[in-house]
Structure formats: C-alpha cells, structure tokens
C-alpha cells in the first residue's frame, strides 16, 4: 500500500465526497495531495474542486451538503470569512481567526467549521523541535492566515503574542478575540521589531514578488529565534534566506500546507498521516 499511487482514484457508488470550494480553481493543490493519498491507502474518498463565485457561495454551501455522500468541504479563497456565518457552529480557533477553511457534516445534519492554517504552522514548529508553550512570538500580518497562526500559537500555550498589521482595525479585532478566549495571554499591538522573540512569523504576502521589501528588519532577529514563512511561491523567500544567513532555524511556507493536511484528515475521520508521507505520494511539485 505504500508504493506509488495509482494515477486516478477509483470512484465508486460508495465514494465519500470532499468538496474543495473556492474561485478560481486553477491553483488548487489539494486534489493532487489528498487523492493520491486516498488511492495509496485504499480509502474510498475523493476531493473534487468546485469553482464557486462569491456571489453564489451563500446559496451553494447548504445545497452541496444536501448530497447523500458528502463528508465535508475544504474551503479556500474567497470564502473563508463568509463560511463562519454560514455554518451552525465554529471552533474557538475559527472564531478567533474569523475564518474557516474546513466544514464537516455532523450526524445530526449540522455543519461545523474549523480552521487549520494555524494548526499546520504549529504542527510544523513542534515537529521541528521548536517549543511554543511559554514562548514569545511575533506575528507580522493579521489577515486570514496570520490570524489563524496567532490563534493556534495561543492555543499551543504561547505566553506572549506581538501583532503588527497596517490594518489597525483588523489587528485590534484579532487581539480582542484572542483576549476573550485566552485572557492570560500577554498581547502587544503594533509591534514589528523581532528582537527578543523566540518565534518570528511573516504572515504577509511580502515575498511573492522578487522586488518585495522584507516584512521586517531581519538584522534584529536573534540567531536563536525560529522563523516561519507563509509564502509558498518559492520555498526560500528572501526573508527566509536572510534569516537563515543569521543562523536561524526556519520553516518554509509549503511545510504549513503539508502539516495541516493530517489535521484535516483527523477532522474528517480519515485517520492521520505524516507530512513526509503526504509529500511522497503527492502528484505535485513545488
């Protein structure tokens, strides 16, 4: 069962469906990761990309869950924020992030929304030996991904979170939700100096283009800090190259993607996996 996956999953009348909802679909990578994994493990399930425009999403989501063979949905842009208001309940992590990227159909017909961007980031840190409990972390960028990472760092026991984003309203909203769920967490707002932090995260899009400025002053990052990136366009972004040159340990953006998939599998009831196993079976190159 651990050999090369078959080129196509075997779809039967009993196949369990996971919808992959977003728009546009051309950049979707999940089908090329999940479906080879399912095929290699003999799991009768399939991820199907479904292009849903924003104006149709509120009507489409409840309808797709009327299907008799659906287990859940992976949700990507531009629907993560909207999803929170369309499901019956959300987990604390999704509530703090203000976005959900997974929806599960419960036995009673209700829909549960959760958020795994931050979970993937945190699992990657822990698997690389970076402790989180009691540590100080800086998250630069408080959009969807940054909010999810902040929520998961808080859940993992970080003692202090410093947040920075030019969108002050979004940053303050995230801080308020964090305080509500984690009243003992020390929060520092509008802070972008990485000096003295154990964990430093670039959760901005800076690094997508070669002429982007660095998201912070890398010379202020201590060599003992662990540095994380969310940009996936290239593995070693200028930010990571600069941090690595200072001796920092680091996590590339695609690690977050592969580390979150085991959490998705567990959420949907398909067991678990390791990021390394998923990389071996994936039919995609980064």
Q: Strand-and-helix sequence, N→C? A: EHEHEHEHEEHEHEHEEEHEHH
- The structural domain count equals 2
In angstroms, what separates the terminal alpha carbons?
A: 25 Å
Structural class, from helix and strand content? alpha/beta
Major sheet: order of its strands?
2-1-3-5-6-4
Tell me the quaternary state. Answer: single chain
Per CATH, what is the topology of the largest domain?
Rossmann fold
CATH superfamily of the largest domain: NAD(P)-binding Rossmann-like Domain
Which geometry do the CA atoms define?
globular
The percent of residues in helical segments reads 25-40%
- Which stretches are low in confidence, meaning pLDDT under 50 for 5 or more residues running? 1-5
| Residue-averaged pLDDT | 92
Helix count, DSSP H or I runs of 4 or more residues: 10
**Estimated share of beta-strand residues:** 15-25%
Rg over alpha carbons = 19 Å
Could you describe the largest sheet, including whether it forms a barrel? 6 strands, mixed
Number of strand segments: 12
CATH architecture annotation of the largest domain: 3-Layer(aba) Sandwich
Question: Can you characterise this structure?
Answer:
The protein has two domains: 16-115 and 256-281, Leucine Dehydrogenase, chain A, domain 1 (Rossmann fold, 3-Layer(aba) Sandwich), CATH 3.40.50.10860; 118-251, NAD(P)-binding Rossmann-like Domain (Rossmann fold). Residues 1-5 have low confidence and may be disordered. Helix 6 links the parallel strand 7 and strand 8 (160-164). Helix content is 36%, strand content 19%. It is built from ten helices and twelve strands. The protein is globular and about 55 Å long. The strands form two sheets. Strands 2-1-3-5-6-4 form a six-stranded mixed β-sheet. It has a six-stranded parallel β-sheet with strand order 9-8-7-10-11-12, sandwiched between helices. With 286 residues, it is α/β, with parallel strands linked by helices.
